[in-house]
Amino acid sequence: MSSLPLISTAERRRRLGRRHRLAPSARAASVPEVADAVIGLHATDASTVFLSARARLSEGGPGTVERALYEDVSLVRLLSMRRTLFAVSTELAPYVDSSTARAIAAKERRNFLKRLAEDGHGLDADWLAGAESATLDALDSHGPSTGSQLSAAVPVLRRKVTVERGGKYEAQVGVATHVIRLLAADGRIRRDRPRGSWTSSQYRWVHTEPWPAVPPAEARAELARRWLRSYGPATEADLKWWTGWTLTDVRKALAAVGPDTVRLDDGTTALVSPGDTGPEPEQEPWAALLPALDPSAMGWADRGFHLDPAHRPALFDYAGNIGPTVWWNGRIVGGWAQRADGEFVHRLLGDPGGEAERAIAAEADRLAAWVGEARITPRMRTPLERELAVG
């Protein structure tokens, strides 16, 4: 094992700064370039896509991200890794779709058909196909529409079904959300510009064509190859956690890539892209304020190289979602929040030094200028974010 190349913790942090486009000299010129650098931007929270892109773009405001999502459509949202919504480049989308999203879409469909059968009112796959067809026809007729607008235009979407029949949580729920979710998971509709500002989650929907088919094994190998380049050194367990694939699929994908093995500072081993064992170029010191669920904080199951375990209780919610974070040279050193009056505040968890404090304050000012009059409240709120937000 001693003959294996060593990649130190400091080296891993340098890789993160350059490859994740967080160091100022490494910032990207376009939104798809940002997304590809980290494979995809978490999109469960509407503002995360924008704020993750902001931290990595050399120039441009919220309108730059909106153009990529809704005009150029060079960035699209897919229900994919870990059944989580990601925004990925259209160049990568077919690989994400075939490697991950197709299986999720099929499972979502099976679960909903089971729910329809349990309702006992004769709703089945044929009924669902008719509801989906009527929804697509409505989008073709009316153009971009919200879920409520589609429900108004398509009577079958106003249907309700009983869930948890006979159980403690029995309830009547509408089918519209489920039908729209299935169409989106299948790539037959996509999210368009929301009602309201870029922080809104009231999306309109548009009819679109499914992604070109890629053999799933080929797609998984391509995703694993890109992930290793962005997140290596990393482990088999990290890739399994990040993708949500089975262990068998993870191992087959890695075998197709043929990664190299390296040593880490703690004596364990990890994987990198073939030949990717050399030193990372030196870079300038850098600070970043990243949003909740940012990929650089969520890319590994084991984040010990950039996160002090003592800081987890303040920065994570009960479900394991990380909140807004403050970074200095590749490690998390604090958290931030925006208050109701628009003020951005942060707290450092330790003393990173005067240079770090000045750089972080400057980055906070850059964030405030970029956000302008918008208000950011993470969907997944963490103890430190809540505390800072109320003052």
Percentage beta strand: 15-25%
Strand order of the largest sheet: 10-11-12-13
Summing up helix and strand content along with how strands pair, one would put the structural category as alpha+beta
Biggest beta sheet attributes: 4 strands, antiparallel
Span between termini = 51 Å
Q: Helix share of residues?
A: 40-55%
Average the pLDDT over all residues and give the rounded result.
Answer: 95
* Bulk shape: globular
The helix/strand series, from N terminus to C terminus, equals HHEHHEEHHHEEHEEHHHEEEHHEEEHH
Radius of gyration: 22 Å
The overall strand count is 13
Please mark out the parts with pLDDT under 50 across 5 or more consecutive residues, or reply none: none
Number of DSSP helices?
A: 15
Describe what you observe in this structure.
By secondary structure, the protein is of the alpha+beta class. It has helices at residues 9-19, 31-37, 46-56, 62-71, 93-119, 125-142, 147-153, 176-185, 216-231, 236-243, 247-257, 295-298, 312-315, 354-371, 383-390; strands at 41-42, 75-79, 85-89, 160-163, 171-174, 189-194, 203-207, 260-263, 269-272, 287-290, 325-328, 331-338, 344-348. The strands form 5 sheets. It has a 4-stranded antiparallel beta sheet. Strands 1-3-2 form a 3-stranded antiparallel beta sheet, with helices on both faces. Helix 9 packs across helix 11 (247-257) and helix 10 (236-243) crosses helix 11. The longest helix has 27 residues, at 93-119. It is globular. The N and C termini lie far apart (51 Å).
